[in-house]
Amino acid sequence: MSTMLTATPGQTIGPFFGYALQFDRGNELVPPGSPGAIQLHGVVTDGHGKPVPDALLEIWQADADGVTPKATGSLRRDGWTFTGWGRASTDDEGRYIFSTVLPGATQPDSAPFIMVAVFARGLLNRLFTRAYLPGEQLSGDPLLNSLPAERRHTMVADRDGHGLRFDIKLQGADETVFLRYPGHRP
Amino acid sequence: MKGRNSDSVLASQAELRVEIGAIESAYQRSGVEETQPRLDYAPYRSSLLRHPTKDLHHVDPEGVELWTPCFGERDVHPLESDLTIQHNGAPIGERTVVTGRIVDGDGRAVRRQLVEIWQANASGRYIHKRDQHPAPIDPNFTGVGRCLTDDDGYYHFTTIKPGPYPWQNHHNAWRPAHIHFSLFGTEFTQRMITQMYFPGDPFSGLDPILQSITDQKARDRLVASYDHDLTTHEWATGYRWDIVLTGSARTPIENPDSGGEHR
Fold it and tell me: Has the ipTM of the complex gone over 0.95?
């Protein structure tokens, strides 16, 4: 599809979003400890490997059956409705935590992933990436296969005792792969 | 005074002007149009260690990427769009209406979608605990608002015109007055956060965050227009700012009569 209009430029989220964009249970797509709940967590680091304490992450994902949610109510969570979207700030150690479920595949044979948007002071526009669930299904994923082998792991979460760990490195040797979608111009 | 200890290592505004000017000159010589901020923009010091060094990897959206979270009346109360009535008294400053239309790259209205804003008060102070700028907090102004766009894609806020404020990027650095906007489209790939500026702001040319957009036409897309038709008699000034999100890849199944296209 041709894009006729030029998009409005992005700008950094700046340092002072915490009091504005956070909302009650923003990072709890499902209540912690509920059946099927997992923790998606990790650390955001800069080019020196230092934690980024003023980043904001959003995730957007299918439910456990691979169905894309259509329900409203993310900002006023009722504890029962899965809306598929959540928002978490990093803490002073650069850590973030979501309580969610493992997404199912949205199409047969597709590799399930959680979409991640990254905002931070010092980051002049948002970044997108995918946090893939680890497993054999990844071997057939077109995006992962289009990446240099040594970079693929930056988009794959690790299983741990809590659920999934997904670190985000904004810059550096093991820099996370960030994505450009059609219509995104420099 | 804040920042005095580190002043010796901070560049002057004159030095920043040279850095910013050199990048813009090189951009103009390149002949390749840019429409978004550079992620790697040294005059904005905080970007040095926080920009990816590798090219963004092109991908066609699939699955959830072709959709976006839905928000509704249960998420946002209509009164949340008025930032001047959140406390017991009226906030200090210039009461201002900010409104505009949000469309995607194909000109389709982004309907019934969430818009969030946040901003400093009239004296340039945020409520945020990390903001230690010694300007007064206004007990009647928090500076946070939300609304849903209407069926034609219009948002509407009533607020106070924010003040400029100093920051630590370089010596005597001041941000132009701005309102932060958080926007969703019809696909999550359109998700964006940006800042709206006011026309004629003397700080615009000095500000490395705005100047990280190297193209003047693109920068102008972040500047609202004063609109006297939005200004109301003995009540509020009015500014108009329209927003274009990136094009959507999903085939539209728009039905203007039934609404809900963004689902």
Answer: yes
What's domain A20-169's superfamily in CATH?
Answer: Aromatic compound dioxygenase (2.60.130.10)
**pLDDT tens-digit series, residues B79-94:** 999 999 999 999 999 9
The type of residue at B239 is Y
Report the residue of A45, A70, A72 to disrupt the B interface, i.e. the one with the largest count of B CBs within 10 Å.
A72
The CA-atom distances, in angstroms, between B1 and each of A183, B5, B174 are 46, 9, 16
> Each residue of A54-102: pLDDT tens digit?
999 999 999 999 999 999 999 999 999 999 999 999 999 999 999 999 9
pTM score, two decimals? 0.95
Domains for chain B: give ranges and CATH numbers.
Answer: 8-50+65-244 (2.60.130.10)
Burial class (CB in 10 A: 0-12, 13-18, 19+), B254: middle
Q: Where are the domains of chain A?
A: 20-169
Least CB–CB distance from A8: residue in B44, B67, B194: B194
